[in-house]
Structure formats: structure tokens, C-alpha cells
């Protein structure tokens, strides 16, 4: 929705890490009600009751573990491997890290794990070259001997730099890692030892194929899954939503490698794309400067038109597929390098503009969501129904953001997708989803003008479009 700019707007060890588990459980869910993570709460069941396909491609089983619970999981696996291989727990941890904690692979392998600490063969330290007493020399199973003072300095420096499992032998070209029971006695002071334990825990979790640390600020929670996949998970403590596989913002249907490539490209080309970041455009009929102040692309000025392509909205329903699809130049490979470079930039800006537009729409629709919440509160206070009576407005706004979030991430997917029948199918489903989201956005912004049944039916259609696209194109 838009208006004339000159007019009024329209419509860890919990003791070590300082974590109190009891307070965590009693803590408020955190975050504002318009937080994007919150949009996924309580919407799916409402839609399913209206007859939508009950299968959700984003459904994924995971468990949120506290620091102590995570330690119990790790300790149990360490004890299993230590007993099976007849090695110490500290050595078992290094083996587990090497195999990404896949115990079946370790037990099925035929590796010989050399774990016995050897007596030094020389009385000379391999670093400072000083001749010292035999009991002052220490050696790993690799038999590289160094004096205790050099070991202490080596370990202290690395731990202060944030290294945990990665502390290895000081000998050149020797990559043998030092077990924790070798390192801990060498560290001066409990503070440094506590840091080392925290770094070890971080490394153990990050190397575990079924575990991920929550990326939320100062959050000690760990997410555990049975099968590691690029799926949406949410921390029960800080409500952080992220992709389990890459720990970045959830990005379906785009895969982890592609979204990294896209975000890097956007950062590298940010100056090139600056001109499309403005919130204003000229009305195609009267040339008045207008500002987009709502989430949908259905613009109202002196005429009705599409914010993205500036085309007439009256015929837009039949042309929506063309609006969201980039028209490749089939003859570009036969043209000059300069022409190919211009075409590449044109293609990137086409997808970037739509990616950025949906991101801004999410922000604007979050404001609409807040206004709906306030309106519901006002009606309840004035005895104009209960929260249950008006819950459908709340659900509609949340579902709108959920669908638009998915739609935003379809554009990096389409940008890197190879031309062919599969891309045509994807672009068709993308256009279908986009059309229904714009219809839903228009109705949510004007909820008082539509019957409840009409709005809920639009929710049902939009969610079906979203699930169909993810079912066919989400990485499985």
C-alpha cells in the first residue's frame, strides 16, 4: 500500500557459565511479539483445521538441551568409546571429535589408536634446547619431548587465544592433539582452566554431527537432532530461530551453500545495489513520488499498480507469473563481454530488488501485526468479543509473515537455479505463492472490510502454496 509523500499516511556448566536453570524455566519467552520467530507459533494447527494438507515440509524433530543435559549426552558417549577401545576418557574425546562423534564408525573401524605416553628418550627440550632433569620433560605418544615450562607456555598462549581441542604437539609437522588431562595440569590458575573447559565443550558440540550450539547471544543451550539436516530449529530459552545445519538464519528453500554465496554477493555488490534501496518510486500514471508504507505490492495512488514492475494492477492477476520471473536473453552468449556483464548485473538487480522488497515488507507487516494486537486488545477491553473471537486476525498476520519469509528466500534459489523445465516449475509455484501472499497482505491490512471466512480461506490458500513449493523444492 502507498500514499502521496505529501499526504497523511493511510491505512554451559551452569555455575561456570553463570546460567541459572530454574530462572531459565521461569523466564519469559523473550523478544517482542512482532519478532519473526514468533510467527511460526500456533499458526500451522489453525490452518490445518481448515483442511490444509497436514504435511508440513518444514516439520523437524529436535530437542533443546541445557549445558548439564548436553554434558550428560557427551559423557555417555565418551564412556562407551573409552570402554570399547580401552582408552582414557580424554583420549576417547579426541577420537570422537575426529569421527564427528559417530560411534558406529569408530567401533567398526580397524584403526589402532596409540594412546600410551612414552618416557622421553633425551634430556634436551626440543624448543628451548636446555638439558633438564628427566622428570621435567614431558612427551606425548609421538615421543616429542619438551620441558614442562615450554609446554605450559604453549598451552597458556593457545587457550588465551580461544583454542580448545586444537592444541597440538609443539614439534614441527606433528599434528597430534593433546588430551585434556595432559593440558589441564599445565594451565596456571582456575580462571584459565575454566576457559579451557568452556572451549572444549564448544569444540565437542561443534564437532558432533547431532548437536548445534544455539547462536543466540550468550545462550548456553544446545539443539540435538536424530538426523542432521538443513531444517528450522528454535531455541526454547532465547527463541532464536536458525538453520540446524549452518546455524545461520533459516533460509528454505535455498540450501546452505547457496545462501552463503548469495549473502556474500549482496555484501560485495552493496554499493551497486544502493539505488534500489530507496523507499520511493514515481507513480506510473501521475509521476507523483510515493512511498511504500505497507507490506503488499498493490499500490494505491492516482491509480492501482504493482510496486515491483509498475504495471496496471487490474491485469496483474494474469501477468503475475511474468512479474516474478526474470526473462533471460537467449542470445547473450553470442554478444560482447561488456553486454554479458550488463546482462549479469541486470539479472542480479532483478532478484536482489525482489529479495530486498520482501525483507522490507516483513518489517512493515510487523508494524501491521502490532496494530492488530492493539486493536484486539482495545476490542476486548470494550467488551466487543474475547481474544478467542479475534484470534483469527492474530493468526492471519503471523501466517502472512511466515509465508513472506519463505517467499523472500525463493529469490536466491531462483537466481542460482539452472534454466530448464524444473526452473519453470519453480517460477510458476513461486508466482502462485507471491500472488496469494499479496492477496493475504491486502486483506490483513484491511481486515475490517473482509468477513472472517474470507480471510481464513485466503490463509488456507497461501499456506497450501507455501507447503507445495517447499515440498517440491526444499532440500530433502
TrEMBL record:
Pfam family, one: IBR_2
Skewed-composition ranges (Acidic residues): 12-38
Region of interest called Disordered, as start-end residue ranges on this chain: 1-43
Keywords, in A-Z order: Cytoplasm, Metal-binding, Nucleus, Phosphoprotein, Repeat, Transferase, Ubl conjugation, Ubl conjugation pathway, Zinc, Zinc-finger
Gene Ontology CC terms, in alphabetical order: cytoplasm; nucleus
GO biological process: protein ubiquitination; ubiquitin-dependent protein catabolic process
Listed InterPro entries: Ariadne, BRcat_RBR_TRIAD1, E3_UB_ligase_RBR, IBR_dom, Parkin-like_IBR, Rcat_RBR_TRIAD1, TRIAD_supradom, Znf_RING
RING-type domain ranges (all copies): 121-327, 125-177
GO molecular function term, any single one: ubiquitin protein ligase activity
EC number(s) reported in the record: 2.3.2.31
Pathway of action: Protein modification; protein ubiquitination
Subcellular localization, as worded in the UniProt entry: Cytoplasm; Nucleus
Enzyme class of the recorded protein, top EC level: transferase
Catalytic activity as recorded in UniProt: [E2 ubiquitin-conjugating enzyme]-S-ubiquitinyl-L-cysteine + [acceptor protein]-L-lysine = [E2 ubiquitin-conjugating enzyme]-L-cysteine + [acceptor protein]-N(6)-ubiquitinyl-L-lysine
Family that this chain belongs to: Belongs to the RBR family. Ariadne subfamily.
Protein name (record): E3 ubiquitin-protein ligase ARIH2
Amino acid at each position: 500500500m502507498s500514499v502521496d509523500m505529501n499526504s497523511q499516511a493511510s491505512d554451559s556448566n551452569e555455575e561456570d557459565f553463570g546460567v541459572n536453570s530454574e530462572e531459565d524455566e521461569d523466564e519469559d519467552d523473550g523478544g517482542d511479539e512482532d519478532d519473526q520467530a514468533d510467527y511460526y507459533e500456533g499458526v500451522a494447527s489453525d490452518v490445518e483445521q481448515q483442511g490444509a494438507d497436514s504435511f508440513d515440509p518444514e516439520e523437524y524433530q529436535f530437542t533443546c538441551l541445557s549445558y548439564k543435559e548436553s554434558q550428560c549426552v557427551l559423557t555417555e558417549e565418551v564412556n562407551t568409546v573409552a570402554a570399547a577401545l580401552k582408552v582414557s576418557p580424554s583420549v576417547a574425546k579426541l577420537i570422537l571429535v575426529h569421527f564427528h562423534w559417530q560411534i558406529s564408525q569408530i567401533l567398526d573401524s580397524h584403526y589402532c589408536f596409540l594412546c600410551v605416553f612414552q618416557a622421553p628418550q633425551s634430556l634436551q627440550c626440543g624448543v628451548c634446547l636446555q638439558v633438564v632433569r628427566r622428570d621435567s620433560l614431558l612427551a606425548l605418544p609421538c615421543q616429542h619431548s619438551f620441558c614442562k615450562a615450554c609446554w605450559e607456555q604453549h598451552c597458556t598462549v593457545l587457550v588465551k587465544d580461544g583454542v580448545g581441542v586444537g592444541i597440538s604437539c609443539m614439534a614441527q609437522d606433528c599434528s597430534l592433539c593433546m588430551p585434556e588431562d595432559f593440558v589441564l595440569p599445565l594451565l596456571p590458575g582456575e580462571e584459565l582452566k575454566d576457559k579451557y573447559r568452556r572451549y572444549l565443550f564448544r569444540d565437542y558440540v561443534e564437532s558432533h554431527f547431532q548437536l548445534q550450539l544455539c547462536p543466540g547471544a550468550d545462550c548456553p543451550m544446545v539443539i540435538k537432532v536424530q538426523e542432521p539436516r538443513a531444517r528450522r530449529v528454535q531455541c526454547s530459552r532465547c527463541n532464536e530461530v536458525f538453520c540446524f545445519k549452518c546455524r545461520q538464519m533459516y533460509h528454505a528453500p535455498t540450501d546452505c551453500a547457496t545462501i552463503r554465496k548469495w549473502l556474500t554477493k549482496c555484501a560485495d555488490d552493496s554499493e551497486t545495489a544502493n539505488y534500489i534501496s530507496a523507499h520511493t518510486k514515481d507513480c506510473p500514471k501521475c509521476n507523483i513520488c510515493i512511498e511504500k508504507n505497507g507490506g503488499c505490492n498493490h499500490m494505491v495512488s492516482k491509480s492501482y499498480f504493482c510496486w515491483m514492475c509498475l504495471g496496471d494492477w487490474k491485469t496483474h492477476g494474469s501477468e503475475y507469473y511474468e512479474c516474478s520471473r526474470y526473462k533471460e536473453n537467449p542470445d547473450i552468449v553470442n554478444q560482447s563481454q561488456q553486454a554479458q556483464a550488463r546482462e549479469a548485473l541486470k539479472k542480479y538487480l532483478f532478484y536482489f530488488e525482489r529479495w530486498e522488497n520482501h525483507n522490507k515488507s516483513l518489517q512493515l507487516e510487523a508494524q501491521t501485526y502490532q496494530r492488530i494486537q492493539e486493536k484486539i486488545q482495545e476490542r476486548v477491553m470494550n467488551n466487543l468479543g474475547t481474544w478467542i473471537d479475534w484470534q483469527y486476525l492474530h493468526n492471519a498476520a503471523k501466517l502472512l509473515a511466515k509465508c513472506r519469509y519463505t517467499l523472500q528466500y525463493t529469490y536466491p534459489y531462483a537466481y542460482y537455479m539452472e534454466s530448464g523445465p524444473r526452473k519453470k516449475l519453480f517460477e510458476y509455484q513461486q508466482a502462485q505463492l507471491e500472488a496469494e501472499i499479496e492477496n493475504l497482505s491486502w486483506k490483513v491490512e484491511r481486515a475490517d472490510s473482509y468477513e472472517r471466512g474470507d480471510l481464513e480461506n485466503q490463509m488456507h490458500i497461501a499456506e497450501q502454496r507455501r507447503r507445495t513449493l517447499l515440498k517440491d523444492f526444499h532440500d530433502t
